[in-house]
Structure formats: C-alpha cells, structure tokens
C-alpha cells in the first residue's frame, strides 16, 4: 500500500510504501521524480566503482526507515501542520506525531497478570503478559551487549516484534511462539465476549446469588417465589438496627448462621477506649464479627444497639430478582417476594413461565438478593412481576394460566358439570388459604333446586372472578372461543363456544385458552387488569390455580393408548381418502409424462406438478384429520387439550391416530439425492407420494422403514434450523440493542439519543406507550368500556338519553374544565364512536320499543345510556388515555431492540412460497429479517408488486406483463443460420410472426434492438431486415461465432434484469408480481399505477423514491415478516427501528459500518466491534467521551 503526502513546510513530496516487516517502512524517493535519479547515483559513484553489483540497488532509491529515523522525522513536523494530519493543535492535548513512536514500555500491574503456583512442579506458572515482558527485557539486554551492527538490527526487529505481540498478539507477521501457544495481548484482554468491555464492564458477576432447578407450585401467588432454606441461610441482607427492630434482630443474632432464621455477621462501631485506640492507630473503627460461636452471639446480642448492621438470613417477603438465561427481553428478569420453604428447588406459580420461556423439564434459574434499600425499592416498584403482567412488545398479557390450568378450567365449565353441596363447598373452600384465610366467600344459589340442589361448574368459576359481592369486581365480557365456536347463534351456540360473562357470572360458554391464556387482549385476566388493577388480576389467577387443579386432581385426567386407537370405521375412512388422493396424484404424474399437464401461471410443468401434488396431499391429511375429529368422543383427552388450547392441536391428533402426512424438506417434497431417487427403496425418477416423503401411517400404527427415514430427515432439518437460527438471531438482537441503547423519551416528548439528536418528534407519532394499548392502535377499547359501564353502573333512577341528547351531552362535557384540554385525537375518536356505534343502537331500540309495548321497559333498562353513565364512561376513557401517554425517560430504544429481536427466535430460516403464486419463492423468516436490518444492497428475492389502472381487465394485465417481461431474440425466432458469400459474411435470423404478433413486436423493432446493443460497437457492422428475416453482418469472419452466440440473448422487448413476471387473479382482480430490481422502469410502463407500485428492495426504493419511502418499506416489510410467523409487535417499535435507520438522510444498516456513522462515542463503538481499531483511532485524534450514553450488552 502506498501513501503519498506533501508537507507544507518542506514542499517536498514523500511516497511511503508499507513493507512486509513490522519494524520498518520503505521510503521510495523517486516514485514521482525519476529525473533526479542520476544526481542521486553520483553521490554513490565511488562505492559503485568498487562494487558494481550495488548499481541497480542504488538506482531504485529505496530508503528503509526504522523507528529511530521515524522519530527524528516526526519531531521535525511543526505544530501548525498538525490539523492537516487530523490531529488537534491545542496545547492542552499535548499531542504530536512523535508520540506515535513508543519510547517506554508500559508495565501492567501484577493484579491483572497474577502468578499461579503450580501443583505439578515446583515454581509458578506466569501469565502471558509477564512472559512477554520477560522476552522484551531479554531482547533489550541483548541489545546493550557489545554485538555487531547486523546482529543489533536483528535484535531490534525481535524487540519490536515482541512489543507488537504485547499490544496485539494476533497481528499478522509475528514470529511463531514456542509450542505454538496462544498468547493473549493487551488488545485481546479488551476485545471479544470475554474481554474487559463486554465481559467485565457491561456484564458483571455478582455475590448474593443462588441457582438451582425450578419446579411448579400453584399455591404461590404470581409475585412469590419459594426459596429453599439452604439458600436462605447463605444469602444475607445487611439490615440496620433501629429501635423498632432491635428485639427481632437480637433474636436472629442469637440463632446464629446455622439456625434459620438467623444472622451471619454483625458490623458495629467500636466504643469507648477501643474506639480511641483505633483512632490513634489510624485503623477503622468498624468491626465485622462472624457469629459462629455461641459466646460471640451472646456477646454481640447483649450490646446490640441502633446503628449496627446485622447481616441476617433471607426472610419471607424479602425482594429477590429472579432470572433465566437466555435473557432476551426485559421481563426475563423480574422481582418476586421470597417465601422460604424446605426442599431444594425454586418453586413459583406456573402462570409466570411465559416471560422466562421456562418449563419444568430440568431448567435452572437464578435469584439475586439486592443489598441496599434503594435497590430493593427499585426492584419492588419497577421489576415486580405484578407490574410486568403485560408484554412491552405489544401490550398483550404474558403472565397467564397455562397447560393444566387451562385444561382443568375448560373441564370445570363444561355445560354437563354439576356439583352437589359437598363438592361445591369443597371447591369453594380452596379459596380460603394463605392471606385469603379470613376473607368473605359467598356461594351462589344452586342452578338446580329440586330434587337435589346442584351447582354448575360455571357458578364455581364465577367465584374465581368475584368470591363475594363486597369485592366490587364486575367483569363483563362477550367473546367467542378459539376452536369451539360454531359461528351460529352467539350465546346459543350448540358447542357452548360463545362466552358471556355478566357481572362476574359465567352465563354461557366454555372457557378456553383465548379467555384464560396469554397473547389475547380479550382474555378475562386482561380485562381484570385494565378495569380493576394488578392486585385483582393476581388474586384471580391464584384462585384459579387453587380451584382448577384441585378439581382436576379429584376428577382425574390422563392419556392412555386407547385414547389414540383408531376405530375400524376410521381406518376404513382413512384408507379410502388416501386411495382417492393417490389416484389423483397418479393422474397428474401421467399428464406430466405425456406433456399434457396445464401449467400454472408463471410456472414450469415440473413446478406445476409439484404444486398440484402437494395440494392434493395436504387435502388427504386435512380430510383424515376431519374424519378423526368427527369420530372421537368429546371426552377424549387429546381432543380436550386441543379444543381448550392447553397443549397440542388437531394436526397432532391426526398424526397420532390417522396419518402423519407429507414430510417437507426445504419447503418442498423430499428431493432425489441417490441416483435420481429419494431412497434406495424406490425406482429412479419416481414421483409418487410414497417415493417423495408421504407418510400414510400414523404414530399409533407405526411407520414403515422408508417412512421412518423420511420422518427422520424432516426432523433433522428442524434441529439444524434451530441451531443455526439461535446464533443468527442472537447476533442480530445484540446489534439492534447496541444501535438503540441510548434512545429515550425526553421531557419535550421527542425521542433523542445520547448526543441530543432528535430521532422522532413524538414517539410513535402519537406519544402512546405500547404497554397500555387495549386495541392494536388505541389505549381504550370503547365497546368493552361502554358495556362495562352499562353493566356495572345501572343507575336505575335515571332516564336514558336519546341519540340527539347524547351527542349534545358529549359536546357539553367537552367544554368542562376537566375535559377542555383533552387531546384532539381522543376527542375525535370518542365522537366517532358515539356517532357511529352508540347512537344507531339507541335509535334502533327506541323504534323497537315504540312498536312493541311488551317488554319495552326491560329493553330500555338494559340498552339505555344515562347521563351518569356517560360521565363515568368519559372519565374512564380520559384516565386510560392519560395513563397511556409514554413517560419521559422511558428507554424506548432498548425496548425496541428487545421487542424486535426476541420474536426472531420464533422464526425459521426457510424460504416460503409467495401467497397465491406457487412459482414465486420469497425469502421469509430470519434471512429476510437479516436483509432488512442490514439494509442489504442485493437481496435474495427482489419483488415488485404492480397495481394496474384497470385491475379487472385481463387483456391489460397481459399487455403490461409482455411490456415488462424480457423477450429474447431466441424466443421469437424460428431459425438462425450462418451465411458466407464471396462479398459478405452474415447471420440470417428467421422470425416467428405468430409469437411476434402475440407479444406486439415488429421486425423493425427487432432490428433496432440489435443495433442498440453492445454488439454493434464491437462485433457488428450493420443490420438489415426484410419481411420475416433479420440479417446481421459481423465486422469480420473472426467475429462470426461470437455474434451467433450473443445475438440470441439480445433483449427485443421488456426490461432487462427482470427474471420472471406472474399475473395473480383474485376474485376477478388482477395484480402483477415482478421478480427483479427494476422499480423505476416498471413504474414507467403504460397501464401501471406508479403511486401504488411496491418493491421489497429498500435501497432501490431509496434511490427511486427517496429516504421517506424507504422508511415506509422497512416498516411494512418487518411487519409482514413477523405477521407471516404469527408474531405481533407493536408498530411503534418498528417505526423507531426504521427511523434510526433513515434519520440521517440515507439508509444505514444495523452493522459496523452503520454504527460508525450513527455513533461518536468511543467507548460505545469499542464495546461493539473492532475494539482495538476504535481505541487507536480515538487516541490518534485525541477524542474524548463525555459518557452521556449508557451501554448494554
């Protein structure tokens, strides 16, 4: 590498060529001054005459510059030239190029290079740094000896190499170390995952921690964790003695470290004469005493007084931090209240598994006991599990019942569950335990009075929501279940699949995961959380666990082999379905072999065959599953779990009982890998379902050898996919968090980074917190809120308002002082809801009441809206909206990185078919997310979606397709022949007029296309045409073969670079999908609506439409990738991610090049990647870091 520069003071041009050695550079004197070589050579005339071999060496004019010479040259650089070298000239920095030459070797303290006493041999094992210092000293001692000049130069080179190894032991060009041992230099101790930045500064080990296996305990509240006594004795908390706790702490001191509850140490100040002696000797007057002996305990307890510190055992109700790795998001570490119990595992409520992604198959978790009151307060008010019930990712509940809890509650609320008084009272009594022991409990009136009083399971479920009217909890909900609702009759659904809860009474429906589990904002517990607070929600979950599991334990629930044994009718039905499907597949294969198979749009015949067979085999599996579902008894255990949503699905049941189905590898059927066949069991080229991975047997009947192999191949793909995905998504999340870590909401509602640069003028464009969203986009669900107000506040003595009175009343309320300053968007949303949803219903029921006098009072009572109800409704809406405004100081950047990075672990690495177009493969999952986050210049599957001016015109769609799709000359020619005559050599091309007419191409257009190609400039002299012929004349005979090869690929019509164009028809509406990165050219095609044409290539959109359009593409593409995998992330997180990528006027990817553009903090850059480079550059330019931004990961 050559570096050329001109010094202003000397006005000489220097060319420095970097050599291969570590200890010198080469100065090429005459690189740009060849005329002065002779003058230079004359100085060495005498030497050359004595040794003629030196003449060519001298004429090269190369000068070796070693560190000593470089120091002399650098010292001559005046300070006024320093700005030209990008070095500050201010004297406070004390900087100069001469300081780049190290003259004194810095020696690290022995604390970071300790000596280890060897147990094998006498002596010590020295640290790598110590060994390198020894080598440096040895070389320095050798140089000081009386040795020759050549040996001295060699020793200097060795000394330089050892010092370079000390700084960076992985630098290229270093001599090998004896025994090829890997040495860690200073740079290696700073960089990497285990270096000082990431291993010690950003993530630190802690004391007062414990780790063991976890197990479930539904008797724990969701904010409690059970700590083993053994751990509680080892974890201590320093509690200061006061007058209020003196006697209690004295009793702990007397118990000592081995009796629980006890104390381990006591720290106290010396008193009297001993204090004066300590002050005189200059030692500390604080003594820490270990309470191992009984005499020490009695002595300390006797003189214990206020101000002393007792390091006591962990006690009940202490705040501890509970964590599981990998900690992918904020709620992976939460605060719990400790409950000390015997045995050896951490036990907690299974409702809390989801935030930690924990299960009980041997998982281990950690606890940490905070050591100060400030830390306890922060953990209690910010990290307590009660305050982390919902996910910051999208506001959906995370802490919720799972598995057995859902199954048990589902069985309890079936419409055929009746309980006598003993059973009902036994279940209800489960609510009287722990802190709830003395609370009131009201058993409802029995549903059946005679001949025996019987209570339904639905009534017992009502006690879970509100055990007594004094609680004031009135839950109101109307929600269809996920799988049992038949879409008929709402509350009168024959499957009992529509849930109606009114005033905390379950009137209809059988609850399932949608009503109980996480991930649903229509769940019962989310309604409790939003309407009655965290405590009410936590109490209800605890009551559910107590009743549901007690009921399930006494009812019994298990799975046996008989549950998955198919009946003879089911076996016959499955055989018939498979036979019909195989016959259809054979018909497709025969059509393919006879070339009569009709191709799908944009597909080859082979692609069409695979698509048709895959669709048919999917039908086989679905029909077999439907037959299986029809014939299973409603009490079948796998069916109960699938219907309730607690575990498994109907597909799992079908695979166990009916057939496993098609095995997919790489998104396709099993490929041929062994001499044209998938396995040696089948003939070459076979395309039958059995030969391409269809498993017709079930897990109950057992798989044949070939089916077993196919199933193992598919399972292996899933394992490798998971292994690769873990590393990719982990690195992606780290990059996201490093970019976004310093973004926070300021007090002017803007989102700013640590430098004060504005990223967003208002977070998410509306300033609302995703955590508080009741719907996907708004913090209040008006319909549910109105139903709740009407049911909870009946106001029997007030008259309902008419529609006109209601709209007028809303306007009047908005003029009151309490509502005058409401956000305009909230006012508009309320008015729109009242006008379009409430008023039409009121008018409808008023008309019905005037026509039907009977029952009008009851209808009017239930459907009316009074002034009090309206005032309460508006007050609740106002409070929820104001609560949803994001608080200043919120670390929205870190939340964004976690919310986008954590769901990526649920995605796959596969490429899926584009919806509706079998031939269009589009990158999805982790690879597509990586392309978006990296702002990749070349993406794997660029796709343009074209909207037509007349989407219902098939002819226009075909015309636009032909205008976009590249038509090569070979596509419209019948023959191509070489002609040689005495006068000319030319290529004669006969055109196919039918194909040309179909594509709208004329002969002159073909001739013009050939003339405008690159061939015209190099290989073709002229082009002529006559009717159906084109004549191409090469420049000479030698160019004839080249012209013949290249002329076929000449693009006659269409857009070069487009690989495929497909028309998609949906309900008569046509859309065109273009595979290729040619957005500008596609938008210019007649018949295309340019404003609605979309591309998934971010950088191309930036070049064509600008950075704002690119930002919109980033948002849309990220949301599409996540929605394709069933992952919901609030759009505000994605908007922030896109704004950071584009806020500097260009699209910057989340990688090291974009990091250097976005950040100027030296420590932030060094803690990310290329630690040494950033530190060296910062030292050269004398950069400082104001420590304004925090660093994570």
Automatic annotation (TrEMBL):
Keyword presence, Membrane: no
Places the protein is found: Nucleus
Start and end residues of each RNA polymerase N-terminal domain: 98-413
Keywords: DNA-directed RNA polymerase, Magnesium, Metal-binding, Nucleotidyltransferase, Nucleus, Transcription, Transferase, Zinc
Entries under InterPro entries matching the protein: RNA_pol_asu (IPR000722), RNA_pol_N (IPR006592), RNA_pol_Rpb1_1 (IPR007080), RNA_pol_Rpb1_3 (IPR007066), RNA_pol_Rpb1_3_sf (IPR042102), RNA_pol_Rpb1_4 (IPR007083), RNA_pol_Rpb1_5 (IPR007081), RNAP_III_RPC1_N (IPR035697)
Class of this enzyme: transferase
Coarse class of the protein's main subcellular location: nucleus
GO biological process, one term: DNA-templated transcription
Keyword Transferase: yes
EC number(s) given by UniProt: 2.7.7.6
GO cellular component: DNA-directed RNA polymerase complex; nuclear lumen
A single GO molecular function term of this UniProt record: metal ion binding
Catalytic activity: RNA(n) + a ribonucleoside 5'-triphosphate = RNA(n+1) + diphosphate
Record-linked Pfam families: RNA_pol_Rpb1_1, RNA_pol_Rpb1_2, RNA_pol_Rpb1_3, RNA_pol_Rpb1_4, RNA_pol_Rpb1_5
Family the UniProt entry places it in: Belongs to the RNA polymerase beta' chain family.
Role description: DNA-dependent RNA polymerase catalyzes the transcription of DNA into RNA using the four ribonucleoside triphosphates as substrates.
Matches recorded under PANTHER family: DNA-DIRECTED RNA POLYMERASE SUBUNIT BETA' N-TERMINAL SECTION (PTHR48446)
Protein name per its UniProtKB record: DNA-directed RNA polymerase subunit
Source species: Schistosoma haematobium
